[in-house]
Amino acid sequence: MTGLITSSFGLVGRALPQPTTDNVEREVRISRYGDCYAYNVVPTKHVLDDEGSYFIANNGQTAISGQTQITFTATAPTISIFNSDSAGNPSSKRIYLDYNYLVAGGTAFTSGGTGNVATFVAVTLDSQDGVTGGTLLSPVCANMDTGTKSVAIVRFGALAAPAVTANARTIVGQRLVRCPVTTATLSLANVDQYLFNFGGVDFSMALPNAASATLEANAVGRTVNLPPVVIGPGQSVWVYVFTSTSVSVTPGNYFPEIGWWER
After folding, report:
1. Domain range for residue 179?
2. Tens of pLDDT along 128-185?
3. What is the DSSP letter of 58?
4. What is the pLDDT of residues 123-139, one digit of tens each?
5. How many domains, in total, are found in the chain?
6. How far apart are CA 187 and CA 204, in angstroms?
7. DSSP-based three-state secondary structure for 210
8. Which of these, 34, 155, 167, 173, is most buried using a 10 Å CB contact count?
9. Does any domain span residue 231?
10. DSSP 112
Protein backbone atom coordinates (compact mmCIF):
# COMPACT_ATOMS: atom_id res chain seq x y z
CA MET A 1 0.00 0.00 0.00
CA THR A 2 1.39 3.40 -0.98
CA GLY A 3 0.38 6.99 -0.33
CA LEU A 4 -1.34 8.56 2.62
CA ILE A 5 -4.79 7.74 3.89
CA THR A 6 -6.79 10.92 3.38
CA SER A 7 -10.03 9.67 4.93
CA SER A 8 -11.00 7.06 7.45
CA PHE A 9 -14.46 5.74 8.13
CA GLY A 10 -16.34 4.00 10.89
CA LEU A 11 -19.86 3.01 11.74
CA VAL A 12 -22.09 5.69 13.27
CA GLY A 13 -23.41 4.24 16.50
CA ARG A 14 -25.33 6.59 18.72
CA ALA A 15 -26.79 3.61 20.55
CA LEU A 16 -24.55 1.11 22.32
CA PRO A 17 -23.43 -1.48 19.71
CA GLN A 18 -23.32 -5.23 20.17
CA PRO A 19 -20.16 -6.47 21.94
CA THR A 20 -17.44 -8.38 20.08
CA THR A 21 -15.19 -11.07 21.53
CA ASP A 22 -11.41 -10.64 21.87
CA ASN A 23 -9.12 -10.94 18.82
CA VAL A 24 -11.93 -10.30 16.33
CA GLU A 25 -11.69 -7.32 13.97
CA ARG A 26 -14.55 -4.86 13.70
CA GLU A 27 -15.29 -1.31 12.53
CA VAL A 28 -14.55 1.82 14.57
CA ARG A 29 -17.54 3.41 16.30
CA ILE A 30 -18.05 7.12 15.57
CA SER A 31 -20.65 9.74 16.44
CA ARG A 32 -22.97 11.33 13.90
CA TYR A 33 -20.50 14.24 13.76
CA GLY A 34 -17.54 11.99 12.92
CA ASP A 35 -15.98 11.88 16.40
CA CYS A 36 -14.40 8.63 17.50
CA TYR A 37 -15.69 7.12 20.71
CA ALA A 38 -12.84 6.51 23.13
CA TYR A 39 -12.69 4.55 26.40
CA ASN A 40 -10.55 6.33 28.96
CA VAL A 41 -8.72 3.60 30.87
CA VAL A 42 -7.04 6.19 33.14
CA PRO A 43 -9.86 8.36 34.57
CA THR A 44 -7.46 10.95 36.01
CA LYS A 45 -5.35 13.80 34.61
CA HIS A 46 -2.05 11.88 34.72
CA VAL A 47 -1.94 11.56 30.93
CA LEU A 48 -2.07 15.36 30.56
CA ASP A 49 0.72 15.69 33.11
CA ASP A 50 2.76 12.96 31.43
CA GLU A 51 2.76 14.85 28.13
CA GLY A 52 3.63 18.13 29.87
CA SER A 53 0.28 19.85 29.30
CA TYR A 54 -0.90 20.23 32.90
CA PHE A 55 0.16 23.19 35.05
CA ILE A 56 -0.33 24.40 38.62
CA ALA A 57 0.28 27.80 40.21
CA ASN A 58 0.34 28.68 43.90
CA ASN A 59 2.09 30.99 46.35
CA GLY A 60 3.59 28.35 48.59
CA GLN A 61 2.93 29.00 52.26
CA THR A 62 2.43 32.76 51.89
CA ALA A 63 -1.11 34.16 51.91
CA ILE A 64 -2.21 36.97 49.58
CA SER A 65 -4.65 39.74 50.46
CA GLY A 66 -7.99 39.69 48.66
CA GLN A 67 -10.19 42.46 47.34
CA THR A 68 -11.85 45.21 49.38
CA GLN A 69 -14.90 46.02 47.25
CA ILE A 70 -18.29 46.01 48.92
CA THR A 71 -20.16 45.05 45.73
CA PHE A 72 -19.21 43.50 42.40
CA THR A 73 -16.73 45.70 40.51
CA ALA A 74 -15.83 44.68 36.94
CA THR A 75 -12.35 46.20 37.22
CA ALA A 76 -11.43 44.40 40.46
CA PRO A 77 -10.96 40.65 39.86
CA THR A 78 -9.27 38.40 42.40
CA ILE A 79 -7.77 35.95 39.86
CA SER A 80 -6.54 36.80 36.35
CA ILE A 81 -5.25 34.23 33.86
CA PHE A 82 -3.99 35.59 30.53
CA ASN A 83 -3.08 33.42 27.52
CA SER A 84 0.10 35.08 26.23
CA ASP A 85 0.26 32.93 23.09
CA SER A 86 -0.19 34.68 19.75
CA ALA A 87 -3.45 34.28 17.87
CA GLY A 88 -1.41 34.31 14.64
CA ASN A 89 0.64 31.33 15.74
CA PRO A 90 -0.64 28.22 13.91
CA SER A 91 0.52 26.13 16.89
CA SER A 92 -0.99 28.44 19.52
CA LYS A 93 -2.42 26.80 22.61
CA ARG A 94 -5.65 27.23 24.49
CA ILE A 95 -5.89 27.17 28.28
CA TYR A 96 -8.48 24.85 29.80
CA LEU A 97 -9.31 25.84 33.38
CA ASP A 98 -9.55 22.92 35.79
CA TYR A 99 -9.91 24.38 39.28
CA ASN A 100 -9.27 27.33 41.58
CA TYR A 101 -8.76 26.40 45.24
CA LEU A 102 -8.70 29.01 47.99
CA VAL A 103 -8.03 28.36 51.65
CA ALA A 104 -8.39 31.24 54.09
CA GLY A 105 -5.18 32.66 55.51
CA GLY A 106 -4.54 33.96 58.98
CA THR A 107 -6.58 37.13 58.46
CA ALA A 108 -10.37 36.97 58.13
CA PHE A 109 -12.49 39.29 56.01
CA THR A 110 -14.39 41.67 58.28
CA SER A 111 -16.54 44.76 57.91
CA GLY A 112 -17.26 47.86 59.91
CA GLY A 113 -20.97 47.39 60.31
CA THR A 114 -23.96 45.10 60.22
CA GLY A 115 -24.86 45.19 56.54
CA ASN A 116 -23.15 41.95 55.45
CA VAL A 117 -24.94 39.85 52.85
CA ALA A 118 -22.58 37.12 51.57
CA THR A 119 -19.46 36.18 49.61
CA PHE A 120 -19.93 35.45 45.91
CA VAL A 121 -17.97 34.37 42.82
CA ALA A 122 -18.29 35.63 39.23
CA VAL A 123 -16.35 34.83 36.04
CA THR A 124 -15.70 36.95 32.93
CA LEU A 125 -13.84 36.21 29.68
CA ASP A 126 -12.28 39.08 27.72
CA SER A 127 -9.92 39.64 24.77
CA GLN A 128 -7.31 41.65 26.66
CA ASP A 129 -4.94 41.63 29.63
CA GLY A 130 -3.73 44.87 31.21
CA VAL A 131 -4.22 43.61 34.78
CA THR A 132 -1.91 45.04 37.45
CA GLY A 133 -1.39 44.61 41.18
CA GLY A 134 -1.67 41.51 43.30
CA THR A 135 0.93 38.74 43.13
CA LEU A 136 2.30 37.12 39.97
CA LEU A 137 2.19 33.34 40.35
CA SER A 138 4.67 31.07 38.54
CA PRO A 139 3.15 28.08 36.71
CA VAL A 140 4.88 24.72 37.11
CA CYS A 141 4.34 21.34 35.50
CA ALA A 142 4.15 18.44 37.96
CA ASN A 143 6.31 16.33 35.64
CA MET A 144 10.04 17.04 35.87
CA ASP A 145 10.77 14.96 32.76
CA THR A 146 9.24 17.58 30.50
CA GLY A 147 10.61 21.02 29.73
CA THR A 148 7.36 22.54 28.48
CA LYS A 149 6.64 26.13 29.49
CA SER A 150 3.22 27.54 30.23
CA VAL A 151 1.72 30.31 28.13
CA ALA A 152 -0.37 31.48 31.11
CA ILE A 153 0.27 34.67 33.05
CA VAL A 154 -1.43 34.22 36.41
CA ARG A 155 -2.12 36.94 38.98
CA PHE A 156 -3.91 36.76 42.32
CA GLY A 157 -4.99 39.28 44.94
CA ALA A 158 -6.30 42.84 44.96
CA LEU A 159 -6.02 43.22 41.17
CA ALA A 160 -6.81 46.25 39.04
CA ALA A 161 -8.16 45.50 35.57
CA PRO A 162 -9.03 47.79 32.66
CA ALA A 163 -12.64 48.34 31.66
CA VAL A 164 -14.03 45.30 29.88
CA THR A 165 -14.14 45.40 26.09
CA ALA A 166 -17.13 44.93 23.83
CA ASN A 167 -15.98 41.32 23.38
CA ALA A 168 -16.30 40.47 27.09
CA ARG A 169 -18.52 37.55 28.04
CA THR A 170 -20.00 36.99 31.47
CA ILE A 171 -19.66 33.27 32.14
CA VAL A 172 -20.85 33.32 35.76
CA GLY A 173 -22.89 36.30 36.86
CA GLN A 174 -23.08 35.63 40.58
CA ARG A 175 -22.85 32.43 42.62
CA LEU A 176 -23.18 32.25 46.37
CA VAL A 177 -20.06 30.92 48.12
CA ARG A 178 -20.74 31.52 51.81
CA CYS A 179 -23.02 33.48 54.11
CA PRO A 180 -21.40 35.79 56.70
CA VAL A 181 -20.05 34.29 59.91
CA THR A 182 -21.55 37.12 61.98
CA THR A 183 -22.88 40.58 61.26
CA ALA A 184 -19.29 41.86 61.38
CA THR A 185 -17.25 38.90 60.09
CA LEU A 186 -17.34 37.57 56.53
CA SER A 187 -14.95 34.59 56.76
CA LEU A 188 -13.13 32.36 59.24
CA ALA A 189 -9.34 32.57 59.17
CA ASN A 190 -7.30 29.43 58.51
CA VAL A 191 -10.28 27.11 58.08
CA ASP A 192 -12.58 28.36 55.30
CA GLN A 193 -11.84 26.75 51.94
CA TYR A 194 -13.46 27.10 48.53
CA LEU A 195 -12.94 24.88 45.49
CA PHE A 196 -14.16 26.29 42.16
CA ASN A 197 -14.42 23.30 39.82
CA PHE A 198 -14.59 24.39 36.17
CA GLY A 199 -16.55 22.00 33.99
CA GLY A 200 -18.15 20.10 36.86
CA VAL A 201 -20.90 17.89 35.50
CA ASP A 202 -23.35 18.55 38.33
CA PHE A 203 -24.68 21.88 39.51
CA SER A 204 -23.83 22.72 43.10
CA MET A 205 -25.36 25.17 45.55
CA ALA A 206 -23.94 26.78 48.67
CA LEU A 207 -26.44 26.23 51.46
CA PRO A 208 -25.90 27.81 54.88
CA ASN A 209 -24.19 25.42 57.29
CA ALA A 210 -26.13 26.81 60.24
CA ALA A 211 -29.60 27.15 61.68
CA SER A 212 -29.84 30.75 60.48
CA ALA A 213 -30.72 31.42 56.86
CA THR A 214 -28.51 34.53 56.79
CA LEU A 215 -25.53 33.65 59.01
CA GLU A 216 -23.10 30.76 58.74
CA ALA A 217 -21.11 30.55 61.95
CA ASN A 218 -19.35 27.27 61.20
CA ALA A 219 -16.25 26.73 59.07
CA VAL A 220 -16.93 26.23 55.37
CA GLY A 221 -15.37 23.68 53.02
CA ARG A 222 -17.30 24.09 49.80
CA THR A 223 -17.05 22.89 46.19
CA VAL A 224 -18.73 25.14 43.62
CA ASN A 225 -19.08 23.62 40.15
CA LEU A 226 -18.76 26.27 37.43
CA PRO A 227 -19.13 26.12 33.63
CA PRO A 228 -16.15 25.00 31.53
CA VAL A 229 -13.86 27.87 30.53
CA VAL A 230 -11.39 27.89 27.61
CA ILE A 231 -8.97 30.81 27.20
CA GLY A 232 -7.77 31.42 23.67
CA PRO A 233 -4.58 33.25 22.61
CA GLY A 234 -4.64 36.90 23.66
CA GLN A 235 -7.62 36.32 25.96
CA SER A 236 -8.08 36.46 29.73
CA VAL A 237 -10.37 35.00 32.34
CA TRP A 238 -11.11 37.12 35.40
CA VAL A 239 -12.48 35.40 38.51
CA TYR A 240 -14.09 37.66 41.09
CA VAL A 241 -14.40 36.59 44.73
CA PHE A 242 -16.31 39.48 46.20
CA THR A 243 -18.43 40.39 49.17
CA SER A 244 -21.76 42.15 49.23
CA THR A 245 -22.12 44.55 52.10
CA SER A 246 -23.28 48.10 52.72
CA VAL A 247 -20.14 49.07 54.65
CA SER A 248 -16.39 49.07 54.12
CA VAL A 249 -14.49 45.77 54.11
CA THR A 250 -11.18 45.00 55.79
CA PRO A 251 -9.59 42.45 53.46
CA GLY A 252 -8.57 39.02 54.62
CA ASN A 253 -6.22 36.77 52.71
CA TYR A 254 -6.07 33.43 50.91
CA PHE A 255 -3.61 30.73 49.97
CA PRO A 256 -4.45 30.20 46.26
CA GLU A 257 -3.89 27.12 44.11
CA ILE A 258 -4.90 27.06 40.43
CA GLY A 259 -4.80 24.13 37.99
CA TRP A 260 -5.26 24.00 34.20
CA TRP A 261 -4.03 22.31 31.03
CA GLU A 262 -2.83 23.72 27.71
CA ARG A 263 -3.29 22.07 24.33
Report:
1. 42-262
2. 999 999 999 999 999 999 889 999 999 999 999 999 999 999 999 999 998 888 888 8
3. E
4. 999 999 999 999 999 99
5. 1
6. 20
7. coil
8. 155
9. yes
10. S
